[in-house]
Design brief:
By secondary structure, the protein is an alpha+beta fold. Helix content is about 20%, strand content about 40%. The chain contains 3 helices and 8 strands; from the N terminus they run E-E-E-E-E-H-E-E-E-H-H. The chain has helices at about 70-80, 145-150, 155-174, and strands at about 5-10, 15-20, 30-40, 45-50, 60, 85-100, 110-120, 135-140. The longest helix is centred in the last third of the chain and has 21 residues, at about 155-174.
Length: about 170
């Protein structure tokens, strides 16, 4: 399958996004973000938003010094969603390339996407990230409906289809 691409504009820049399905995300650098597609036992996916006027998204964020992908995702899921996960499986990366509005020679990086299994849903607390302090709205949606909540174009559709396939394989083994 060809890697889907799309162009988006944000903050005065134009970006080329390429979805790459790959279990081995260690070969991609630099890694800027780690996000999780978290499934519960009802075959639903966790989505969240920091305020009611924000778009729904999957949770995750930037790595801190010395963190692994798994450590980053676990920390971000706790900070944003107040959840713990029992298993994390790399799904692939989204390559982000600045094609208009570059500030340096190489304005490209990768965003890791993982599938994770919900372990525990905890009482919600404010996001400790600087400038946040908000309690995220969180909810689970049927996995087959995810692209009606998160509108990430062709790349998002491909990513969520791959996440569901991986989750179904994992579920058969558990």
């Amino acid at each position: 399958m060809e890697n889907p691409t799309q162009i988006i504009e944000s903050g005065g820049k134009k970006y080329l996004l390429t979805w790459i399905r790959d279990d081995d995300v260690s070969k991609y650098a630099p890694l800027a973000h780690v996000h999780g597609i978290v499934f519960n036992e009802k075959d639903e996916i966790l989505i969240g938003r920091s305020k009611p006027t924000s778009s729904w998204k999957i949770m995750g964020g930037r790595s801190e010094e010395g963190e692994t992908i798994e450590q980053t995702l676990s920390r971000e899921l706790m900070e944003e969603g107040d959840i713990t996960v029992s298993k994390i499986y790399p799904l692939g990366v989204q390559k982000v390339e600045v094609i208009e509005g570059k500030e340096k020679d190489d304005d490209s990086y990768y965003q890791v996407r993982c599938v994770a299994l919900l372990d525990e849903l905890l009482p919600q607390t404010p996001d400790p990230a600087p400038g946040q302090g908000l309690v995220w709205e969180r909810k689970f949606v049927p996995m087959r409906d995810i692209t009606t909540y998160i509108l990430w174009g062709e790349n998002g559709v491909a990513m969520f289809e791959e996440a569901i396939k991986l989750y179904e394989k994992i579920r058969q083994k558990v």
